[in-house]
Amino acid sequence: MKAPPDKCEGVVICLTGLSGAGKTTLARLLEKTVTEEGRPVQVLDGDDIRKNLSKDLGYCRADRETNMRRIGYVCRLLIQHGVMVIVSAISPYRNVRDEIRCACECRFVEVYVKCPVQSLIQRDAKGLYRRAIAGEIPNFTGISDPYEEPLNGEIVVETDRQSQEESLCAIVETLKRLDYL
Fold first, then answer.
1. Is residue 102 within 8 Å of 95, Cβ to Cβ?
2. What is the pTM of this model?
3. Residue 10 in 3-state DSSP?
4. What distance in Å separates the CA atoms of residue 163 and residue 4, rounded to the nearest whole number?
5. Count of H helices and E strands in the chain?
6. Rounded distance between C-alpha atoms, residue 137 and residue 143, angstroms
7. Hey, which residues are catalytic here?
8. Which of 22, 85, 143, 181 pairs with 10 at a CA distance of 20 to 30 A?
9. Is the pLDDT of residue 18 over 70?
10. 140-178: per-residue pLDDT in tens?
């Protein structure tokens, strides 16, 4: 049996879910909480990674997998230095999330930020779902491209049913239970 993690040990908190589910909002709230605890923390936001580290990639399955593997590589580097890495990315494919979990020596907490597509279509602040449904955005996760829900994640927060504060509290409690906070 593996010993419980040391609070000085780095860990990846992977917030995964569909576009607009609340991953970035929760990542920023969690970052603030972790910073207040005195832990070194780094947020890796999927949109920022796409603009910088992965701007050469498209949205086919192979490119999405490459994007996530790049994020995973950065995570491995950061956790070796005791950083809590909060990843906020759709990360649609289970196999790549599992690869990253293994590569990070299981110092990985998968948080499924769950929200039904119908709720996301109603929210649609950026108009992405409307454009995807109209066929203007190909390979849009949840509409014309699959999203593989986590099967064995550490926590599920349901942003259509929980407030931001309730979701954050559930994540923090899970991290405390796992001895990462």
1. no
2. 0.92
3. coil
4. 30
5. 7, 5
6. 10
7. 91
8. 22
9. yes
10. 999 999 999 999 899 999 999 999 999 999 999 999 999
Instruction: Give the tokens for residue 38.
Output: 């005195």
Asked if residues 100 and 4 have their Cβ atoms less than 8 Å apart, the reply is: no
Position of tokens 């509409």? 143
43, amino acid identity? V
Written as one letter, the residue type at 132 is: A
The one-letter code for the residue type at 56 is D
Lookup: tokens for 176: 């405390």
- DSSP H or E run through 27: helix 23-36
What burial letters (b/e) apply to 93-129, b meaning 16+ CB within 10 Å?
A: bbebbeebbeebeebbbbbbbbbebebbbeebeeebb
Buried b (16+ CB within 10 A) or exposed e, 4-31: eeebebbbbbbbbbbbbbbbbbbbbbbb
Report the side by side order of strands in the sheet with 155-158.
Answer: 41-45, 84-88, 11-16, 108-114, 155-158
Q: Which two tokens stand for residue 109?
A: 């907490």
Instruction: Please count the CA atoms within 13 angstroms of the CA of 160 that sit on its side-chain side.
Output: 14
Q: What is the CATH number of domain 11-115+147-176?
A: 3.40.50.300
Which tokens go with 143? 């509409």
Q: Across all residues in the chain, what is the average pLDDT?
A: 93
